[in-house]
Write the structure tokens for this entry.
Amino acid sequence: MLHTAFPDFRIAVEDIVAEGNMIVVRSTISGTQRGPFAGLPASGKKLRIQAVDIHLVEGGKIQKTWHTEDWMSGLRQLGAFGQ
């Protein structure tokens, strides 16, 4: 669905911080809306939002992940709230 709405969809890792058995990854998600998304028609507008992943590592493997993406800012950029 994301690649249909944003054919140039990209995730770029900005920072990786590790302490003990926790790893935090901050990334930027970007793309240009070329198809419908979240009830919005294709707009040609660019999207750029932040994502954060926190990984708990035990025994050399990721055991748990917490993930957040700032889609409220993304929807605002796409004009969902009457900019």
Remarks:
- The mean pLDDT is 95.
